[in-house]
């Protein structure tokens, strides 16, 4: 199966167009106010309205409450919820309440961190392995940090999964070859400044993913 790609933290119609033209399977819209990629609901609605359903729209959240989810789902016409720092029971409740696919982010620095993924069986439909950000960091993701891909060697994935954290157009082919990731996810690696996506980098990332 070819590896598919999610371009995350898109904030303009132009960069969403670049992701779609380049063959991105998923686009990510961030709903987390401390993030430079955060979208308010009106902005998200404007971006999502013209989009075809063929590209999966993923909303990115950090332990969201129901009100945040309801407004974001409606505004972004979301298909999938990517949940950071959200406990398994809460993920299960969100999946049941919304009926949407839920991805759980697992923050990785050590091999032991991977075991967290098993707790999401029955709750999440996919695990997103991401680099653990330092204590006190403003964001739990989207910081361009990479974890040691060797940690995934021999790991028995309990659920479908995706690889993220510090990917970019230069390293993504190696990441796929090294880990066998079925889906790769990038945000800061296709930016020219925090929150500012670069159309050429998006195109290069997607080309490298498909090569
Ligand atoms: O991108 C953000 O601002 C963000 C905010 C809150 C949670 C997650 C966020 N991004 C996710 O982080 C990973 C990795 O990003 P990067 O490529 O290392 O910059 C990715 O899954 C984003 O969806």
TrEMBL record:
Keywords annotated in UniProt: Amino-acid biosynthesis, Aromatic amino acid biosynthesis, Isomerase, Tryptophan biosynthesis
Every N-(5'phosphoribosyl) anthranilate isomerase (PRAI) domain range: 5-208
MF annotations from Gene Ontology: phosphoribosylanthranilate isomerase activity
Domain of life: Bacteria
GO biological process, one term: L-tryptophan biosynthetic process
Official protein name in the record: N-(5'-phosphoribosyl)anthranilate isomerase
Keyword Isomerase: yes
Pathway it works in: Amino-acid biosynthesis; L-tryptophan biosynthesis; L-tryptophan from chorismate: step 3/5
Family membership noted in the UniProt record: Belongs to the TrpF family.
Gene this chain is encoded by: trpF
Coiled coil: none
Key word Amino-acid biosynthesis present: yes
Enzyme Commission number(s): 5.3.1.24
Catalytic activity: N-(5-phospho-beta-D-ribosyl)anthranilate = 1-(2-carboxyphenylamino)-1-deoxy-D-ribulose 5-phosphate
Any single Pfam family the record assigns to this protein: PRAI
Record-linked InterPro entries: Aldolase_TIM, PRAI_dom, RibuloseP-bd_barrel, TrpF_fam
């Amino acid at each position: 199966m070819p590896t598919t790609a999610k371009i995350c933290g898109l904030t303009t119609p132009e960069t969403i167009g670049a992701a779609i033209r380049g063959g991105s399977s998923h686009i990510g819209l961030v709903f987390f106010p401390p993030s430079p990629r955060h979208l308010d609901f009106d902005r998200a609605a404007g971006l999502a309205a013209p989009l075809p359903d063929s590209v999966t729209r993923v909303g990115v959240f950090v332990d969201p409450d129901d009100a945040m989810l309801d407004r974001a789902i409606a505004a972004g016409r979301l298909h999938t919820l990517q949940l950071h720092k959200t406990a398994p029971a809460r993920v299960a409740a969100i999946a049941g309440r919304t009926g949407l696919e839920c991805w759980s982010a697992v923050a990785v620095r050590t091999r032991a961190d991977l075991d967290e993924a098993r707790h999401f069986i029955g709750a999440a439909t996919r695990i997103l392995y991401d680099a653990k950000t330092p204590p006190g960091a403003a964001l739990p993701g989207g910081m361009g940090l990479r974890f040691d891909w060797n940690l995934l060697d021999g790991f028995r994935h309990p659920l479908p999964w995706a690889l993220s954290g510090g990917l970019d157009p230069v390293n993504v082919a190696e990441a796929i070859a090294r880990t066998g990731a079925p889906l790769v996810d990038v945000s800061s690696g296709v930016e020219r400044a925090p929150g500012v996506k670069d159309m050429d980098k998006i195109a290069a990332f997607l080309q490298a993913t498909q090569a």
